Every structure is written in C-alpha cells, then in structure tokens.
Amino acid sequence: SSDQTGNPDRMMLMERQVRQLFGEVPTDPENYIFASQASQAEAKKFFIERTRIKKWRRTGIIWWNLLDGWPQMSDAVVDYYYEKKLAYHYIKRSQAPFAIIFDEIKNWNHPIYACNDTLCDLSGRFSVRDAETGEVLLERDFFAPANTSTMIARMPMFYSEQRFLIIEWEANGEKGRNHYLCGYPAISFERYKRFLENYLK
Prior knowledge:
- This protein is of the alpha+beta class.
- The protein has four helices and seven strands; from the N terminus they run αααβββββββα.
- The strands form two sheets. A four-stranded antiparallel beta sheet has the order 4-3-6-7. A three-stranded antiparallel beta sheet has the order 1-2-5, with helices on one face.
- Strand 6 and strand 7 form a beta hairpin.
- Helix 2 runs parallel beside helix 3.
- The chain is globular.
C-alpha cells in the first residue's frame, strides 16, 4: 500500500477488522499491535487455505505487498525494519508445499484436506488436538496423491463451538503443523493470546 503512516481510512479499517475478530479494540499500544497483527495473519491464512482447498478451480495467489518501503501501517508481512509480522509465520505454514488444512464447517462437520503441491505421493498420520486442554480430538492415517487437494477426514463440530485447534502430522518422514479457529467471532482476545503461546511452544 502507498498510504502514509497514520492514514485515517487505513486506521479505521484496521480497527473494524480487530473489532470483528475480538469484539473489542485494545487501547494500549502493545495489545493493539498484537491484535492488528493477529487479525491480518488470520485473514491471510484464510484466503490462502480457501484457495488451496479448491485447487484447480482456483489456481493461485499473487502476493504484491510483502515488504514495506517506509515505516507505516500496512498489509505488508515484513515491515520497513525487516521485522517479520505474525502473518509471515502463518503464511509460511499455510503455503508450505504440503499442509493439512481445515475447511469451513458444513453440515455440522469440518472437512479436513491434505493439500499436496509436491510431485510425489505422500502418506502419513495426523492428529488434531485442542490447544487449551491438550485433548486429542482426531487421529488417523492419510494418503495425499501428488499435486492434489484431497479430503482426508471430517470432524464433527457445533457451529457455535469456539475451539483453538492444532493440527500436527508426519508425511514421508517430514513433520508439520497448522492451526484452525473454530466458531464465529468475536473471539476472546485473552484466549487468543494464550492459544498463540501454546501454539508457538
């Protein structure tokens, strides 16, 4: 974006996005920065994963604003000082050549996809656990043909149920992880911060 720091329209849009996700806008700078980065990171993750699930019906994403050219509030994923924003790490996981991804809830179930952009068939085992309780909710083997997006499971869930899920897998000896937020916003800001602490351990 070419907007300068402090642009009122950009700031208003960011506040709307933060309020939509968390139901509130933190007033202290540290929490506001965290909330705005979390909102950006979850949005970019959502766009990437919806595209990957629909492989061959949607065929790609073009990134145009990776690095800020000057200090500003923007949707770049690396700031002017080369500090990686939270979105950078979410995007790195979501765009890995192989990732296991949750789709949005349909008919009381979350479809789970193995998105394999490699040219090799992959097989392994994955698990889904609740980040807050540690409870393993689903665990099974999977097979992901080369260069496909394949539904490998469905997980029952109530539409109103808010959960912070961590997906972990091993495929052909390589380990990976991802996450998914279940339920509709607003999500508790404090719960999200605790979730992120557990997820990054």
